[in-house]
Design a protein that fits this description.
By secondary structure, this protein is an alpha/beta fold. It has five helices and five strands. The longest helix is centred in the first third of the chain and has 14 residues, at 28-41. The chain is globular, with a radius of gyration of 14 Å. The two termini are 12 Å apart.
C-alpha cells in the first residue's frame, strides 16, 4: 500500500464551526474518516496531519519525501503568501495536489492568487470535502494505482 499524506493548514481544525456558509458543516475529523475509508479502498495508506504552524507544515512536507508517495495539501491561508511552503513543495519532488473546500476564485481578491500552485501537480477547489476525494483520484492516476 502506498502511503499518502493528507495535510491541512491553519484554521482547518475549526471546520464545522468556522464560517459554515463557506466551508460547510463537516468537521475535519468527519472529512478525515471519510478520506481514510476512501483512500484505503483505493489501495492507499493515508496519513493525516493538521497544524496552524507554518514551520510544522514545512517540517512534515520534508518528512513526506521519505515516507510518502504523494501529498494532498490544503494549506489554508498559507496558500496565498507562504513562499516557504512553496519552496518545501518544490524541494520534496513527490506529487502534491493543492485542494480547497471553497471556490477560491469566487471569493476575496487575495484568495485568487496561489503561490504554491506553480509547484503543485494540480489544484482542485470548490467541491467541499469532495475536493479531497477528487485529489485522491488525481494521485491514483499520477501514481499509476488501479481501482479495487
Amino acid at each position: 500500500m502506498k502511503k499518502i499524506l493528507i495535510m491541512n493548514g491553519p484554521n482547518l481544525n475549526l471546520l464545522g464551526e468556522r464560517e459554515p456558509n463557506i466551508y460547510g458543516s463537516e468537521t475535519l475529523n468527519t472529512i478525515n474518516d471519510m478520506l481514510d475509508e476512501k483512500a484505503r479502498s483505493m489501495g492507499f495508506e493515508p496519513v493525516f496531519f493538521q497544524s496552524n504552524s507554518e514551520g510544522a507544515l514545512i517540517d512534515r512536507l520534508h518528512e513526506s519525501r521519505l515516507d510518502c508517495a504523494g501529498v494532498i495539501l490544503n494549506a489554508g491561508a498559507y496558500t496565498h503568501y507562504s513562499y516557504a511552503i512553496r519552496d518545501a513543495i518544490a524541494a520534496i519532488r513527490i506529487p502534491v495536489i493543492e485542494v480547497h473546500l471553497s471556490n477560491v476564485n469566487s471569493r476575496d481578491e487575495f484568495r485568487r492568487n496561489s503561490v504554491i500552485a506553480p509547484v503543485c501537480r494540480g489544484t482542485i477547489a470548490g467541491f467541499g470535502s469532495n475536493s479531497y476525494v477528487l485529489a485522491l483520484y488525481a494521485l491514483e492516476n499520477i501514481l499509476g494505482e488501479c481501482h479495487d
